[in-house]
Amino acid sequence: MKTFVTGATGFIGASIVRELLKEGREVRVLVRANADTANLNGLDVELWKGDLLDHESLRRGLKGCDVLYHAAADYRLWTRNPEEMYRINVDGTVAILEASLQNGLSRVVYTSSVGTLGNPGDGRPGSETAPVLFDDMVGPYKKSKFLAEREAEKFVARGLPLVIVNPSTPIGPRDIKPTPTGKIIVDFLKRKMPAYLDTGLNIIAVEDCARGHILAEQKGIVGQKYILGNANLTLRDIFNLLQDISGLSAPKIRLPYTPILLAAYLNEGLSRITGREPLIPLAGVQMAAKFMYFDSSKAIRELGLPQMPIRDALVRAVEWFRQNGYV
Prior knowledge:
Elements: E1 2-6, H1 11-22, E2 26-31, E3 46-49, H2 55-62, E4 67-70, H3 82-103, E5 107-111, H4 139-157, E6 162-167, E7 169-171, H5 180-189, E8 195-196, E9 200-205, H6 206-219, E10 225-228, E11 231-234, H7 235-246, E12 253-254, H8 257-274, H9 282-287, E13 291-292, H10 297-303, H11 310-323
Parallel strand pairs: 1-2, 1-4, 2-3, 4-5, 5-6, 6-10, 7-9, 8-12, 9-13
Antiparallel strand pairs: 9-11
């Protein structure tokens, strides 16, 4: 069975590729001409040069494939050009799903985000069926992923056998960028986190998140969504675990929200002038106003989603960042 993977050079995508290879799959991965392929070093995969906005490269790349994992996305909390993010996350998703429909694929797994789901934000977990509107989305990343998920649903209506997975916050090795969450871990290890906001996240080991994708292909119901998550933890809980793992002191000062929000607005305005990423991303602060907790019981019950202890996942992340010169 030949399987096509987008986003394979990234954090989740590279882990998906490794899980597929364990299954004995023949894997073809989409890579841009200038892509950093370090996450694929040593792996027996076919590199297909192309781009999500190059429709012909997608059509030809999917030829002869049975399954698609569409994990590619522009994931940043800030961008000077939101239109570019929409082109990749929305238009790129439409393009590759259209090519999948034309090639008659037997299954598609689309990687969305818990950020597209309804969430009370007060500590009660969100779910796959919680009410949500576009106006609930914060920042261009969440907005673009929300619209992309709506496009994916349209393809289900057109007959594409597609399953949606909504990862929470994966952590672990090979977070090469790193992701915003990986950067929190790196900044902690560099002792650049003197204080914290009172917020919370749902965390999952990246290996479990990747395995959840495979299980969604094998056991998921077409048109259904599955939250790929594990533990709901406050940011302070996460820092306390990192303190235990690293031996470094966790921040003790809890910051008030309003002054940080004002500082984020100022940073955002300055970044629009300079083009440099803000030190305090506005979207990140606005997201922190809610406890981003989620209920993964559907994926655990219906797919058998594994649940590696979060401490173990953090240990693996810390070791990888240290061994690869991030700290």
